[in-house]
Backbone:
């Protein structure tokens, strides 16, 4: 089992510039490793992440990586947090309502209290349920449908979350996120 708290290990509170909130971990064998939407380098890129990469390419012209590990984003200050941190194998949303929400609500609350402006990217209805925890006049909230193949064509594609996040950070006097994903030389996860 990989560290369910990797989001907090890789992205310090002080360094957090963007929060990408997911629903729950991937539920396939060896997929989840504690970062929302991310998989270990040797794992096949899931369809939702393929759609994120397509939007990243269309938004910023970034190269589409050959792996699905988003650790570089976490190290850039992107908190890749799921609302629920565990899931039963093969059963999406199976641990919803079991208590993780209290923990992740507190994480969101603490990030919301930062004096620095933060971008919250809420993809899908489950993530958007957390919007009430965010003080929108201090932070930027970017909402769109989930990048899943079932909903990506309903407004995720074309939403330009990456350039919008960087534009806001720049206007707030904070460093932009380097959204480029480098090749993985060796697995650190």
Residues:
């Amino acid at each position: 089992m990989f560290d369910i708290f990797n989001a907090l290990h890789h992205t310090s509170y002080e360094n957090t510039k963007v929060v990408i909130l997911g629903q729950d971990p991937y539920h396939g064998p060896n997929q989840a490793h504690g970062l929302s939407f991310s998989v270990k380098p040797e794992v096949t890129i899931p369809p939702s992440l393929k759609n994120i990469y397509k939007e990243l390419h269309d938004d910023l012209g970034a190269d589409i990586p050959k792996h699905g590990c988003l650790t570089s984003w976490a190290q850039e200050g992107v908190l890749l947090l799921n609302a629920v941190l565990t899931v039963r194998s093969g059963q999406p949303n199976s641990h919803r309502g079991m208590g993780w929400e209290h923990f992740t609500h507190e994480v969101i609350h603490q990030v919301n209290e930062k004096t620095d402006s933060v971008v919250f990217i809420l993809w899908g209805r489950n993530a958007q349920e957390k919007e009430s925890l965010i003080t929108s006049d201090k932070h930027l909230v970017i909402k769109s449908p989930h990048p899943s193949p079932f909903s990506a064509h309903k407004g995720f594609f074309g939403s330009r979350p990456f350039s919008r996040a960087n534009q806001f950070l720049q206007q707030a006097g904070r460093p932009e996120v380097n959204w480029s994903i480098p090749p993985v030389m060796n697995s650190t996860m």
